[in-house]
Amino acid sequence: MSLSVSPVSPVDAAAPVACLSADETREAVTAGQVMQPALASRHARDAAPGEVVRISLCRQGESFVYVVTTLKRDGRVARVTLDGHSGKVSDIR
């Protein structure tokens, strides 16, 4: 008798994130679908002060999100996820 195991995900789990290329990001910004990366960077620094070391525009389900990594003065890293259009912070880790 063989058992098949399927992954378990919580009901409220966020949709998987798939990040865009630089060209796809430029197209989304130009089309007005998302804010400029520099503005998203400012929103992220307000939420988790530090130096922005990486910023990516990603798709999460039907929405765009920016995933911004900041490096704090004490050496800790924060990962801020924010809405690609409004800049509203949805998660800080």
Keywords:
single chain; 93 residues; alpha+beta; five-stranded antiparallel beta sheet; 2 helices; disordered N terminus
The succession of helices and strands, N to C, reads EHHEEEE
Oligomer state equals: single chain
Largest sheet composition: 5 strands, antiparallel
Q: pLDDT below 50 for ≥5 consecutive residues: which ranges?
A: 1-11
Termini separation comes to: 42 Å
Strand proportion: 35-45%
Helix content: 10-25%
Q: How many H/I helical runs?
A: 2
The count of strands amounts to 5
Radius of gyration: 16 Å
Strand order of the largest sheet: 1-2-3-4-5
Overall mean confidence score, pLDDT: 87
Molecular shape: globular
By secondary-structure content and strand pairing, the structural class works out as: alpha+beta
Descriptive report:
It contains two helices and five strands, in the order βααββββ. The protein has helices at residues 22-30, 37-47; strands at residues 17-19, 51-60, 63-71, 77-83, 89-92. It has a five-stranded antiparallel beta sheet, with helices on one face. Strand 4 (77-83) and strand 5 form a beta hairpin. The chain is globular and about 35 Å long. Residues 1-11 have low confidence and may be disordered.
